[in-house]
Design a protein that fits this description.
A hairpin with a 3-residue loop joins β1 and β2. This protein has four helices and three strands. The protein is globular, with a radius of gyration of 12 Å. The chain has helices at 3-13, 42-53, 55-58, 72-81; strands at residues 18-23, 27-33, 64-70. With 82 residues, the protein is an alpha+beta fold. α1 (3-13) crosses α2 (42-53). The protein has a three-stranded mixed sheet with strand order 1-2-3. It has one domain: BolA-like (GMP Synthetase, Chain A, domain 3), CATH 3.30.300.90.
């Protein structure tokens, strides 16, 4: 799997206003900004992203995925603070 393929899978499974994916083919990092995260705790946000991957997580096609998840408002604030 490539970063582009993983990006497309996540983007097809949920509404993202910003999405970055990077990794080495087995270990991935994702930055996901989505209005779907409104009112969700971090664990629920991560579960939502994992849900887009379906069996790819269970069959080890995506071995590890670390995430940073933001609502659009949180992301805007993070950009102002940077």
């Amino acid at each position: 799997m490539t970063a582009q393929e993983l990006h497309q899978i996540i983007a097809a499974g949920m509404r993202c206003v910003h999405l970055e994916v990077d990794g080495d083919g087995r270990h991935w990092q994702a930055l996901v900004v989505s209005p779907e995260f409104e009112g969700m705790r971090a664990i629920k946000r991560h579960q939502r992203v994992y849900a887009t991957l379906g069996p790819r997580i269970h069959n080890d096609e995506v071995h590890a995925l670390s995430m940073k998840t933001f609502t659009p408002a949180e992301w805007a604030e993070a950009q102002r603070s940077a």
